[in-house]
Design a protein that fits this description.
Helix 6 runs parallel beside helix 7. The protein is globular. The protein has an eight-stranded mixed sheet with strand order 6-7-8-3-9-10-12-11, sandwiched between helices. Strands 2-1-4-5 form a four-stranded antiparallel sheet. It has eleven helices and twelve strands. The chain has 327 residues and is α/β, with parallel strands linked by helices.
């Protein structure tokens, strides 16, 4: 089944998340941090969409707002036909089992005072009415599915390595048989030797359980391996969205070209020959982004209108969308 033939599981429409900046005794609002500044995309059933960009561009915030861990300032998050931004807390709680998250640092996301069995079994206690024996059997089954010994249920997180702790986090995310999992840089805190194992595990689980992933990362080479489509984010906005093959073969936005030029090539001869795009200056503050195109102050190809007018979102070729005046 092709991507277009699959149902759209998640629609994000003009999503905005601004954090207020306050000063003084009365905490008067004097500005806002525009962490997510109007992003739109959709994810199809059983697809992996990669969301990439520099640190601080708003990727993780976008993931948390999509799951409604943070309330949206404006915009819509439509999951299975229901707008999560407009439903009640009780209705949202009923949706929770279908949406889960794998966090970046397993050291911080696992409660050090709880055993592995309690951590993985907690979602089952909250959302399902299983008997104690059934819950223990389900926890052991989940641990086994992520490659951990089911007999480890009485151990604590500090007794495991970083890779094993991330597997515990994955088992917890799988506990309620979700449809969508947001992976917030799940391999960033792991050793390079362990990263490939976790990625292969996520791919195997997607095949086995029919999962849909939003995979947030700054590792372009890893995203190329796991993602069906890739969205490139810069300073709160998505600047390019295309299939993985199309984006890596013919990047259109100057920012995407700069990112890809920094990814090492395994062939030393090609590495010496290729031209790298070196971006000058620092990333502007999200509390005071540039007018017009947010990338204009660092873009080597910027024209006069780039500094004045925000670029429109348009489809340049089939499935390849970009927000740029000069493309």
């Amino acid at each position: 089944m092709t991507l277009k033939e699959r149902n759209v599981l998640l629609e994000v429409k003009e999503l905005v998340k601004h954090f207020p900046i306050t000063r003084g005794v009365f905490r008067r609002e004097v500005g806002s941090v525009k962490a997510v500044d109007g992003i739109s995309f959709d994810i199809h059933d059983r697809e992996t969409l990669g969301l990439v960009g520099e640190s601080g561009c708003g990727k993780s915030t976008a993931g948390r707002v999509i799951l409604q861990l943070l309330p949206a300032t404006s915009g819509n998050v439509i999951f299975k036909g229901r707008d999560l931004t407009s439903i009640t807390k009780e209705e949202l709680r009923k949706q929770r089992p279908q949406m889960q998250m794998i966090f970046q640092d397993p050291q911080d996301s696992l409660n050090p005072r709880m055993t592995v069995g309690s951590i993985v079994g907690e979602p089952l206690m909250e959302h399902q009415s299983l008997k104690t024996k059934e819950r223990h059997e389900r926890v052991e089954q989940l641990l086994n599915s992520v490659g951990l010994n089911p007999k480890f249920t009485n151990r604590y997180p500090h007794e495991f390595s970083g890779g094993q702790r991330q597997r515990i986090g994955i088992a917890r995310a799988l506990a309620l048989s979700p449809d969508l999992i947001i992976c917030d840089e799940p391999i960033a805190a792991l050793d390079v030797s362990i990263q490939a194992q976790v990625i292969n595990l996520l791919e195997d689980l997607q095949e086995e359980y029919g999962l849909t992933y939003l995979f947030i990362s700054h590792d372009l080479s890893m995203i190329r391996h796991i993602a069906d489509r890739v969205a490139v984010m810069y300073l709160g906005r998505i600047v390019e969205l295309a299939s993985s093959q199309s984006l890596y073969k013919t990047p259109l936005h100057p920012y995407t070209q700069a990112l890809l030029s920094a990814v090492p090539i395994h062939d030393p001869k090609q590495e010496r020959k290729r031209n790298r795009t070196i971006l000058e200056g620092d990333v502007p503050s999200p509390s005071n982004p540039p007018s017009g195109c947010h990338f204009s102050t660092r873009c080597p190809k910027a024209e006069a209108k780039c500094f004045k007018e925000p670029p429109g979102w348009r489809e340049v070729s089939k499935g390849h969308q970009v927000a740029c005046h000069i493309v």
